[in-house]
Amino acid sequence: MKEKLYKKEIWLTVVFSVLLILMGHSATIFRLFPGLQQGTFWGFPTQYIAPILLGWFGMAVVCLVMAILCNRFDDEMEEHAASETQRLERVINE
Amino acid sequence: MPAEYALSNVWLGIGVVIALFAIFYYVGWWASRKTASDADFYAAGFSIGPVTNGLGMAATWASLATFLGVIALIQKLQVPFVYLWIQWTISIPLLTLLYGTSLRRMKAFTPASFIRARYGKPSTVVIVCWMTLIMVMYALGQMIGLGQAFELLFGVPYNIGLIVAGVATVGFITMGGMYGASYNAAFQMVVMTIAMVVPMGAIMKAMGSSGWWFPPLAYGDMVPSMLKMIPTFFDMKYDVRWYFALIPAFTLGPVALPHLAMRVFTSSSVKSARWAVVWFALFLGLLFSGTYTAGFAGNFFRATTDRIIEKPDQTLLILNVFYNPALVAAFVMGGALAAGLSTIGGNLMAIAGLIGNDLLGIVAPNMESRKKMRWGYVALAMGGIAAILLAFRPPAFLVTSILWAFGLLATTATPAILLGVWWKEANKLALIISSTICGILYIVISPHVLPSICVGKGLVAALGMSGGMVTVPMSFAMFILLSIAFNRMSALSAYAPTLEDKKVIDRIHGWGEHYEESRYNGITWPLIASVVCIVVMIWGLQPWS
User: Fold this and answer.
1) Taking the CA of residue A32 as centre, how many other CA atoms within 13 Å lie in the half-sphere pointing to its CB?
2) Which of B138, B339, B483, B501 has the greatest CB tally within 10 Å of its CB?
């Protein structure tokens, strides 16, 4: 259980770090792949509006999912820490 | 200073400013009655809810530059500067994810409180010095901006504007402590968002856009006209390395900004901090998108009216004077003022925390809570007065762009915090050496000190992008490699992390007292990270076009 929680914490941190950086730096993708700099969206060139939308709504969605998953993870951690404390208390009492 | 922007009725401006300050002082007075301990003073009693904190976070991040400097820089660099600005939104979510919630769990007042618990006193002095320098640069820039705003708005000499604005500002911030800073920042965010977005709708309508009903995103119908007049406006202009260089200096720097981290620490719980970040992303996105619209409109205005704007900083104000009634223009100025004040509030609270809590905590570790709070008030007022005095005749090295200072923070403080939270091997001596050497190197290779040994040139060097791409990865790599080496030298065992230092890490990650040596330990991944850092550093050292 301990090992599983530890791995989960690392994974959550790595995945959300990458997603946040992608949301904030999506312009780099348009620079890396110039072929994407074509077409328009809502009248704007895609390479202009997509980074703005991802930096605003994309970021908000990532933060929302992050809040839900990380808060759920905290519950698991608290549960684990409480059960470990109980187990230790039992061992000491015995 | 001859102003291109002038209110037709200066009393409208005075009325708006007096009304805003009256509200700020009322909030400060109300907050002072709630402040009874150091936790109240530095962290608003760890009680701020998600929506208020989300607004406060956004306000603390958005500075006077959001209304003045950014629009000028969009005119200069066009769309690449918009990309640079977009990535600021990552700062608070990333710091919350990487260490904000962990440090909130230990009830830290500033990131340096963690440094003291994890690395001890000498390392804390080093980090506090760097952070205080950067906070002073930040507060000074805002204070100068406030003086100039008063000069512009009321036509008074700069020095008088500075004294009036500075003293009035330091007064309400000192009175309210973190409670006042938090609730005032939330209110200031509402003011600045309305001031940015609503008048822009009228401007867009006057410019002929059918999307005036939602200025942040609905001006696409102006794009063809814009492209006819400025065909290069949407060009990405720079190479991949320019875009990559935004990460070390401008993403990793703000992650360690103490006034942003302190907003996370005021949250009513760890979970509430994460929800606050969701609101932050929505609120800041709205304000920033309004800023990009203003930058677009400023370029459009210049191209369609053939008007030369001598002071591009004033573009937003000129647009409002040109297209909107005087009362609206005065309110926009009030919005700019609110943006400056919210940032100064955060900066001064950070200076108070770093000096009054972290540094004083080293000298007098057993000081009682109320006494600590009193010292906090003193440090806050002194920090404010120092910023005002410095702004009269600012030393050249302190008025370098705050964007440049972000690279310095990324070099000196970010590795200490991130590796301290995530890696048990992080060594005290390695931190002091890497932070000091790389920090000094960052200053030396910038164009501001010795232009002959500068890495990069032009704006990339001036803003610290090229320098940061060298010293930030170097600082990470040096810290990791020296830590591994020092921890294995018996002569340096005094600097190796103790069991108590390592227990801090498990505790702040939520494991309670159930310590396990293998967690957040090992050297394989840190070594891989060092290799990546060295590759990035070498890339940064290649000639910049």
Assistant:
1) 7
2) B339
Asked if B221 is an interface residue toward chain A (Cβ–Cβ < 8 A), one would say: yes
**Which of B531, B532, B358, B544 lies closest to B464, judged by CA?**
B544
- Using CA coordinates, name the residue in chain B closest to A58: B281
Kindly list the domain boundaries of chain B, sorted by start residue. Answer: 10-32+42-399, 400-545
Mean of pLDDT values over B62-82? 87
The overall average pLDDT reported for chain B is 92
Chain A interface includes B234 (CB < 8 A): yes
Reduce the DSSP state of residue A40 to 3 states and report it.
Answer: strand
Domain boundaries, chain A: 2-93
Please name the residue of chain A whose CA is at the shortest distance from the CA of residue B243.
A28
Say if residues B468 and B404 touch (Cβ distance below 8 Å).
no
Q: Which CATH architecture has domain B10-32+42-399?
A: Up-down Bundle (1.20)
Q: Which of A28, A33, A72, A92 to mutate to test the interface with B (most CBs of B within 10 A)?
A: A28
Residues in B closer than 8 angstroms to A32, CB to CB, are 240
Residue B107: is its pLDDT beyond 70?
yes
Contact yes or no for A63 and B270 at CB 8 A? no
Partners of A30 on chain B (C-beta within 8 Å) are: 236
Report how far apart, in Å, the C-alpha atoms of B180 and of each of B36, B78, B177 are.
13, 37, 5
ipTM for the predicted complex comes to 0.94
What is the distance between the alpha carbons of residues B386 and B402, in angstroms, rounded to a whole number? 18
What is the rounded distance in angstroms from the CA atom of residue B531 to the CA atom of residue B545?
25
